[in-house]
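yo, Xylose isomerase is done. seq:
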Amino acid sequence: MSVLLGAQEYYKGIGQIKYEGPQSDNPLAFRWYDENKVVAGKTLKDHFKFACAYWHSFNGNGSDPFGAPTHLFPWESIQDPIEKAKAKMDAAFEFITKMNLPYYCFHDVDVVDYGNDIVKNEQRLQTMVEYAKEKQRQSGVKLLWGTANLFSHPRYMNGAATNPDFQVLSHGAAQVKAALDATIALGGENYVFWGGREGYMSLLNTNMKMEQENLARFLHAAKDYARKQGFKGTFFIEPKPAEPSKHQYDYDCATVIGFLNQFGLQNDFKINIEVNHATLAGHTFTHELQVAADHGMLGSIDANRGDYQNGWDTDQFPNDLNEITEAMLIFLQAGGLQGGGVNFDAKIRRNSTDNADLFYAHIGGMDTFARALVTADAILQKSEYKKFREDRYASYNSGKGKEFREGKLTLEDLRSYAVEQGEPAVISGKQEYLENLINRYI
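structure:
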């Protein structure tokens, strides 16, 4: 992939980020992510399909409830919305190609500023789609997935697809239609729904049953429209329990799976799992991965991490090697992702204000995932990890245990077996041993 520059260079002094190996001390080089390295029969590039999050990297300005922006983008001073959007896209593709990232992801309003006129918004987005087509053609970068932002505009204060006002729902549908058209035109491989305000702040004014039924109808309509347009990709739901709403209907993977099955959406939708959303739901990242994998729903990953001292979605770049190694054990045993990739839905910190900081963040995240995958594969191939787990459930592979698994035993049969066998032996789960095993292979 060659570096793709626009009319000006935005990240001056930074060239192509390359793999230099574990011995390198160059902070602007990969130490573990060798895209051509084959692990478990696939290259690292094919395993991960790493993607840049357009919104955090080129729209996140470092502002917070207590302070003004600290990331001052040069394109923000441009008044014309199209020229501003083109300058931002020039910078985006410069960064993406310098990082050698094969994919990117976007919300519609990330690409170009929206107003309140539906037709003008569609025209703006269509103009930028043509510009992005040429950028993708020149660089070879692909669109992993697109989505519509149905949570920032004031009209969506009570949700979009779950809004009590049908007129608001129709605006959300118009926006999704345009975002689907853009995704399809750019060869997007998937499409994501994140229901940031599809929930409630109080049950006192909420008809929860109607709202969830309307959400299902909305998703069916979007799916049917995209399929009519020839879209072959996968639709993803991204779970999150709360924030900005008090309770969101896509609470966690188990909740989403139940919803998809209840409303007949399970054949077209899978799950996009975000690390920080898992922790907000009171789960670990690995728990959510395992739930999705067990149901054949492990579609894609939004990679980040939270802060143990903060109770909100901090969207920090991933760097916990132990956590990601455990995740990669599930990832490999599940056969990888179904359609999606690893999108860095993460932002540099408010006080990280140098151009190089965005590079350091992505390099660290990509290296962490690569090293974790190599470690997980070694554990699966060389250690007793798989055998221990298999042996722990060996009592279900023969005799009465096997009969139970086959549905052949009654409750009376189980009682008789317990009487015959007496008190079971105490068998260790060896949790500390397995935790040490991961550290040994790291």
